[in-house]
Amino acid sequence: MKVIDFSEIQIKAYIDKIRPPKELRSQVDVSCSYKNNTFEIFEIRPNWADKNIIQNLPIAKAKYVKTKKTWSVYWMTSNEKWILYKPKPRVEKLSDFIELLVKDENGCFWG
Fold first, then answer.
1. Is the bond preceding residue 87 a cis peptide, omega within 30 degrees?
2. DSSP letters along 28-92, please?
């Protein structure tokens, strides 16, 4: 049995709230992964040129830095590079990361 920590529960609850209706999920969906103290949120959609190829398009990433007890927040640029999110590159709680995603004041995550 896998142990799921509170952080993972928070992220999954957020993802569940923003997922499109079931009838649209074959066209576009949102999911997340958790590996090595890093959450990555991504969009799932068919490739524009070949609908048989399903792509995971990165949106946001939060990486826990144990030494600082903070989450570093990243967004994916159009040239496919992760960069620290400004004006707030670090947050203390994962709920603060989710709040940044919801507000998306700079249009970095959801456009």
1. yes
2. -EEEEEEETTEEEEEEEEE-SS-TTSEEEEEEEEEEEETTTTEEEEEEE-TTS-EEE-SS--EES
Q: Torsion over CA of 10, 109, 57 and 94, rounded to 10 degrees?
A: -20
- Exposed/middle/buried for 84, CB within 10 Å: 0-12, 13-18, 19+? exposed
pTM: 0.88
CB 48 within 8 A of CB 71: no
CB-CB contact of 94 with 100 (8 Å)? no
Task: Read off the amino acid at residue 95.
Answer: S
pLDDT, tens digit, for every residue of 89-111? 999 999 999 999 999 999 999 98
Residue type, 102: V
Positive or negative torsion for Cα 7, 8, 9, 12 = positive
